[in-house]
Each structure stands twice: as structure tokens, then as C-alpha cells.
């Protein structure tokens, strides 16, 4: 068991002053985005081939296709048609289903015209009439007058809402492109950072050879989806490819098989490879808990110094395994410091592992036995004993 002074020295060198590991962790960040900072798009994007299954038909308002969509969530303006207009949020897609249509048809003509006019004047992005229902004449007149795109679709309201929401969340998600690599290691999405030439691609190749999977190399597109989920993608042109200095461009999917790659992976852990610099402080116990802030989302952060002879792929595997253990509720570093605290508390003294009091008689007896042994096996004594025999 190490002595207390040695353990305290390790703790100080590891960057954790107290034994219980309570220290403000360092944070690193890049491209911080606000919670509601979406990438804006236009109504024209709804005519994308990705939504061709909805079979959108533009009824009127084609000169308003460049209207901005501010949020990916869509709305059904049922309460608005009843006169409660505060429910409508500007810059959203409005879904008109069978219930809204039948309710409006039950209203007197002048009141129906007023409610439709008031809703169309609330800076909505567009109106979508579902279930193949023919849009009311009041919708056609107001949308034409205010340049509000009016679509119709044969799909059900629930299907339309799901498809448009998913499409807009993907299209409007905050994103950043990073010079890095992304791999699936034991089911953990590991984002590899580091300067150019530090060895990210070689480390990734070694991990692939060990059976892990590549998502992207050299260029990773990261999007922040709802619930603060960071998804990493590969650039379409570079997908499944890797550049190795001295060899060139290789296709990982062709070399290692289809199971060696995947298209998207949530990011769980950030690992940075950095050149080993003498005197630089690195975490030696793992209780500091550095974090990396990316697009407003904080992720665990590990810095691995690169030096000759270090097996980086193995270290990344260990970092992923350790992260898995923490997710399951076991932190080996904190368990280690807890045991140290318990040991020190039991001892109650500064020299927790001091030797027991010395017995002078035992020491004298030990010295006599050692002297007898040295004398007995002395070469001269052995030779004299043989002659006597």
C-alpha cells in the first residue's frame, strides 16, 4: 500500500488537490449555439424529393415559397379558428385537417372568412391541407392575397406532421464541420480531435482493424438534434474513405467489409490526441472530469499525449471502456480515492502505513542469524568443512 505522502504527490501531479476529487473541471468549447438556434429554411424546401411520398400539390401562393420557416415543429391551428390567436407561433407550418375543416364549415360565412383572414395574417410560413380534402375557398382567397403558400396532400394529418417534423429537424439542426474523425468503439461514439499529422487516421485505422467501425475520417459533420443529441455524419464525397500519408486514399468498406462502417453515430466521448510536451499537466487519476462543449452540449473530454511507443488505439479503447463503466454507475478513479480516504480515516495519523514499533531483541537476533549465514557459506569455511569430512 503506498504511503500517504506518495498518494498526495500523485494526486497533486494528477491535477486534483483534495483526495475526494472535488475540483472544478476544465471545459473546452467550440461553436456554442443557443438552445433555439435553428438553421433557417424556406417553404420551398418542402418540395424536396425527400418528401415526395407526401405528394404535395401547390394550390396557390407560389410567389411566397421563399417565406422563412423558423422552427421545425408544426402546428394545428384548431384553437385559432375558435378565436384564440395567441396559440399561433409565427414562422411555423400550419396543418389543416378534417376537424379544422368541418369546424370552419359549421361557422357562418362572414365569421369563417374573418377567422381564416386573421390566421393568414399571423405571419405563418404556409398552410397544408391533409387527407385529400379540397381547401375551402376562403383559404384560397386569403393565401393568394397574402402570398401564403397553400398545399394539399392525400396523406393523413398524423403522417404529414411526422414526416414534415422529421425533415425539418434534419434540415434545420444546428451544425458544424470539424477536422476530426468519428468512430464507433464498443458502441460509444468517439470523436477524435488533434492537429494535422498527429496520427488521427492511423489511430482510426488501427481501431478498425481491431473490429470497431468508422463513421467519418478527416471531416465530420456534427448536428445538434432535439434533446441535445449530437449526431456525427460523414461528408457525402468522403464517406467510407480515408487518407493515409504514403499510401493515399483507401476505401474502408471495400478493404474491411460492410460491417466496418456506418453512416451516422451519436457522439458520446471526445478524445484529443496532442503532442507530448514536457511539463504539461495531464490527468493521472481520472477524477478531474474535463468536458468539451460542442454546439451548446457538454461531452466528456479526454486528452491523450502522443509520444513514441504509445499504443493510441489501445488507449482509445480503454477510454471508451472506462466511459461505459461510468455510464453503468462505476467510476474506478473515484472508487480508488474513496478507499484511500477510508484507509486514512482508519489510521488517523499522517504516516498511515508506518511500520510497527521496533523490537531491539528481534533486531539483534536477526543480525546474528545473518552473520552466521554469511560465515557458513563463506568459500574458505566451505573448503575447510570438505577437508574435515
Please provide a written account of the structure.
Residues 1-23 and 31-35 have low confidence and may be disordered. A seven-stranded mixed beta sheet has the order 1-18-19-17-10-9-11. It contains twelve helices and 19 strands. It has 389 residues and is of the alpha/beta class. The longest helix has 17 residues, at 360-376. Helix content is 34%, strand content 22%. It folds into three domains: 4-31 and 174-333, P-loop containing nucleotide triphosphate hydrolases (Rossmann fold, 3-Layer(aba) Sandwich), CATH 3.40.50.300; 41-172, Udp-n-acetylmuramoylalanyl-d-glutamate--2,6- Diaminopimelate Ligase, Chain: A, domain 1; 355-389. The chain has helices spanning 4-13, 78-81, 98-105, 109-120, 137-146, 157-172, 200-209, 252-256, 312-327, 332-347, 360-376, 379-388; strands at 27-30, 41-42, 57-60, 68-69, 93-96, 126-129, 150-152, 175-178, 181-185, 188-194, 213-216, 220-225, 229-234, 241-244, 248-251, 264-266, 269-275, 291-294, 297-306.
What does this entry show, briefly?
With 389 residues, the chain is an alpha/beta fold.
Radius of gyration: 34 Å
The CATH superfamily title of the largest domain: P-loop containing nucleotide triphosphate hydrolases
Give the C-level CATH assignment of the largest domain: Alpha Beta
Share of residues in strands:
15-25%
Helix content: 25-40%
The strand line-up of the biggest sheet is: 1-18-19-17-10-9-11
